[in-house]
Amino acid sequence: MNYTEALSRYVAAFVDELAQHELGNVVISPGSRSTPLAMTFAEHPDVKTWVNMDERSAGFFALGIAKQTNQPVALVCTSGTAAANYYPAVIEAYYSRVPLLVLTADRPHELRDVGAPQAINQLHLYGEYAKWFQELSLPEATDRSLGYIRSMAARAFHVANGKNKGVVHLNFPFREPLVPDFSLPNLWGNQEKAKHLEFHQGQKQLSTPELDKLYEQLKQYKKGLIVCGPMQDNDALVELLALAEAWQIPVLADPLSQLRQGVTNKRVVIDSYDAILKDPNTREKLEPDFIIRFGAMPVSKPYTLWLKEKPAIDHYIVEEDQGFREPVGHGATVFYTDPAMFCATMLELPKFQFDLNWVKQWQSYNQVAMNILKEHDEEGLNEGHAVVHLAEHIPDNSTLFIGNSMAIRDVDTFWFATNKIIKMLANRGANGIDGVISSALGAATASKRVTLFIGDVSFFHDQNGLLMAKQYGLNLTIVLINNNGGGIFSFLPQAKQQSPHYEALFGTPLDLDLSHVAQLYKGNYANPKTWEAYQEALKESYRRSGLSIIELNTVRTHNAAWHEQKWRKIAMHIEEELHVSDGK
């Protein structure tokens, strides 16, 4: 058997085993050394290939597909710095627990560290951010070698897709010639066979003594909260709301928890808690006995400040499998258990007698905050009501991808409970502004309409990702908030210092005509100047296919003042209610 046949059968066995495990998508960045992987993936009938020439964009594009489908996605690149460009997406996948299979082609061992071109040290390139790394053997086609490479494929898929999901990195050393021979008979092996390796994983649940202890602790309390940060486990949402309803305690729901959307009973869901907790006096007077948190930490900074100010609150964290996400530093009890099973088990316990006035208080404050946030002022366009109108017109059963910095915070504040089924996604693992457009386009590959809500600096950072929209005709509406720079810094102490260096270091105005970006990538463009024109632009974008960019121009300083005026008004009205409840 010659080398080309050995290479072809070896790589084909690997790709086929991934297909047997239902790997649906692979994102390929062109290169020479990765030819065996790229061509074999493209040849396999059960795998969809996407070609993205920029590895940084490709990494985030794959991340977006994986976030949308909740299934592993493979990345393929050539040797050298190509693999290093995946690093930001790998870090985001690690922290947000998203399954990626990073498949890097490499020079064979004799061409490493000898001055050969395009050869870097790719071993353990991603360090602790990979759940598992393997340097694979050189291609052979013996029965043992083909069994080995199928085992590697199966294990890689299982580890990436297991609890907690994450990144697997496999490094493939290839000698030349690199082009596979697809005329070989029975290249994929026996198509009727089962997977070479199969894995099954059960659910973790608490023991009876652990449940008994928790029950005795909960019996002591009168005021409780359920807090839901970004969550991957949508199966737990129904059980979680049922538990909150049975206990009659408030649920502070981050927008990425998915609890603000869908046809569910949301009577105890508090969607304006970020605005409520902005005021220090309000935070001081609201003190629960306990908090049970599901998912990652919420986006809300006031919520984090509140926790830091209330170290006496008993804190319980429900984690699906492992890991530790408690950045405040207070004591906490962590339960490693299936969230849906945890809620169902709690519902079977004898009913608790919690303070009903507590949930009514939160519901009242929530209504106050929502009414004030929705109030239209005489001023022109603003970033908060851009979210309000977006929520009105975004299609049912679609996806909203949210940029970081001010974009996610405005969605947190101005997105209220709705019966529309809207999946909310964001890159909140490492909270970077890089790769957001690419991730949104990756989410758009799943044939759902995707809307991206993003700021101008983050938009600028990933403009080249728009090539995938043009290349594959993906449907994406971009609501681009252009305040000519880093608007989030207007809310931070840096903006109050009146430093002559503020604009250069933090404001970072771009002063770019972004309409040219739409022309470059064959997209539709609108720049509405009124709310009526904005709403019409949204409706028009959803009537057409392809890329639409709706640019809203706002002023950073005006936007910060407008937000702060809303928060002061909310604090004042809640203070009045607190005085009434205190009998003053």
TrEMBL record:
Function: Catalyzes the thiamine diphosphate-dependent decarboxylation of 2-oxoglutarate and the subsequent addition of the resulting succinic semialdehyde-thiamine pyrophosphate anion to isochorismate to yield 2-succinyl-5-enolpyruvyl-6-hydroxy-3-cyclohexene-1-carboxylate (SEPHCHC).
Annotated pathway: Quinol/quinone metabolism; 1,4-dihydroxy-2-naphthoate biosynthesis; 1,4-dihydroxy-2-naphthoate from chorismate: step 2/7; Quinol/quinone metabolism; menaquinone biosynthesis
EC number(s) from the headed UniProt entry: 2.2.1.9
Name by which UniProt lists this protein: 2-succinyl-5-enolpyruvyl-6-hydroxy-3-cyclohexene-1-carboxylate synthase
Family: Belongs to the TPP enzyme family. MenD subfamily.
Molecular function as annotated in GO: 2-succinyl-5-enolpyruvyl-6-hydroxy-3-cyclohexene-1-carboxylic-acid synthase activity; magnesium ion binding; manganese ion binding; thiamine pyrophosphate binding
Keyword presence, Cell division: no
